[in-house]
């Protein structure tokens, strides 16, 4: 029985790799946003808002609020000079289907309003001259940031700020 499971897993992994290989050339590569571009961002604080698109991150809001403010980039300037999109070929990727199934099991039916093909991201930005401490950009639909990395980065910020101030 174990051999059959291993064989099925190997075939599924191979098919996943083939589908990703075929669709990767059609993905929009990310461009780093220059500082001038980011300065034009309209950041608004999240006032207790919870967004279905980021439930796990939104659930951390009380913990993150203790360490600093949480912002939403309404103009989407942090997406970069060119928004990254995944077209219909994205539905050939196994990871997209797995993410969709995971969201459906959690009771999310999706957001049918707005631009559904834009890939998002999460940034942790330090105070002053610290700059961007953590950057996560979706590779495909449902590619989520590692929550532990966000918490670890945010908790590390005050220590790094103290080290900069003591120099």
UniProtKB/TrEMBL annotation:
Pfam families: AhpC-TSA_2 (PF13911). GO terms for molecular function: antioxidant activity. It is found in: Cytoplasm. GO terms for cellular component: cytoplasm. Its main location: cytoplasm. It comes from the Eukaryota. Keywords: Antioxidant, Cytoplasm, Redox-active center. InterPro entries: PXL2A/B/C. Belongs to the peroxiredoxin-like PRXL2 family. PRXL2A subfamily. This is Peroxiredoxin-like 2A. It comes from Mugilogobius chulae (yellowstripe goby). The lineage of its organism: Eukaryota, Metazoa, Chordata, Craniata, Vertebrata.
């Amino acid at each position: 029985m174990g051999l059959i499971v291993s064989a099925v897993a190997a075939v599924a992994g191979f098919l996943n790799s083939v589908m990703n290989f075929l669709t990767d050339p059609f993905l929009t590569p990310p461009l780093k946003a220059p500082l001038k571009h980011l300065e034009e961002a309209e950041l608004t604080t999240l006032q207790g808002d919870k967004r279905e698109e980021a439930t796990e991150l939104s659930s951390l809001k009380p913990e993150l609020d203790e360490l600093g403010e949480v912002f939403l980039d309404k103009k989407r300037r942090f997406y970069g000079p060119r928004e990254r999109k995944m077209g219909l070929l994205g539905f050939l990727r196994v990871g997209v289907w797995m993410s969709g199934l995971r969201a459906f099991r959690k009771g999310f039916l999706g957001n049918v309003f707005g631009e559904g093909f834009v890939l998002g991201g999460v940034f942790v930005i330090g105070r002053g001259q610290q700059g961007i401490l953590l950057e996560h950009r979706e590779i495909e639909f449902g590619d989520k940031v590692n929550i532990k990395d966000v918490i670890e980065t945010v908790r590390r910020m005050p220590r790094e700020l103290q080290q900069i101030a003591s120099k």
